[in-house]
Amino acid sequence: MLTRAVRLYGADDLKLEQFELPEIKDGEILAKVVTDSICMSTYKLLKQGKAHKRCPQDVDANPVIIGHEFAGDIVKVGRDWQGEFKEGEKFAQQPALNYKGSLASPGYSYRFYGGDCTYCVIPHEVMELGCLLHYGGESYFQASLGEPMSCIIGGYHANYHTNKQDYRHDMGVKPGGSVGCSM
Ligand SMILES: [Zn+2]
Asked: How far is the CA of 153 from the centre of ligand 1 (A)?
């Protein structure tokens, strides 16, 4: 399948290119991207290039597709997932993968999986993690905005000093704590 994608080759180095996607394997899904909202995190990746923690070190030779807030249609389903997903149905996705401790995520780390393209290949780890979601909404952009909305909600939960696991809010005076003023 021919795709047209915006790919990152390094810091401040984006190219719009057309290339052939590999044939999907049994555990993968071919998808058509309809919407992809633009995120400031993508701008950070563009500015940092290889210094970004999710960016592969060989990105200059194997560029990644940018964009992680996307939704669209499922075009072809690999054999392993044919009981669960159907060709032609809409999808949404959860882009923060965390597969076996890896930081790899769509929009930062994958050659054939990301949002700023016409077609992409959804890899097996996304399927195994349950991060590909059935979507029954009317408009694609609402599904694209799922990830930024979750960031806003998460931001409110983390307005106080909390731990990263459960956002528990520890009240009261911290032993040995101090209050300073920068003026
Ligand atoms: Zn985002």
From this structure: 13
Q: Mean pLDDT of successive 10-residue segments in the chain (183 residues)? A: 97 98 97 96 96 97 97 98 97 92 95 98 96 96 94 81 71 76 56
Q: Position of tokens 């959804």?
A: 122
Q: How many CB atoms lie within 10 A of CB 162?
A: 13
- What pTM value is reported for the model? 0.85
Number of domains comprising the chain: 1
Cα 137 to averaged position of ligand 1 atoms, centre (Å): 20
Residue 32, beta-bridge partner list: 73, 119
Would residue 50 count as lying in a domain? yes
- Tens digits of residue pLDDT in 66-97: 999 999 999 999 999 999 999 999 999 999 89
| Domain membership flag for residue 176 | no
Backbone phi, psi, residue 75, to 5°: -100, -45
Can you give the residue range of the structural domain that contains 48?
2-148
Kindly report the CATH number assigned to the domain that includes residue 79.
Answer: 3.90.180.10
CA 154–ligand 1 middle distance (angstroms): 12
Find, among 10, 8, 37, 5, the residue nearest to 21 by Cα: 5
Cα 179 to averaged position of ligand 1 atoms, centre (Å): 33
Residue 170 lies in a domain: no
Residue 64 placed within a domain: yes
Mean pLDDT, the chain, integer: 92
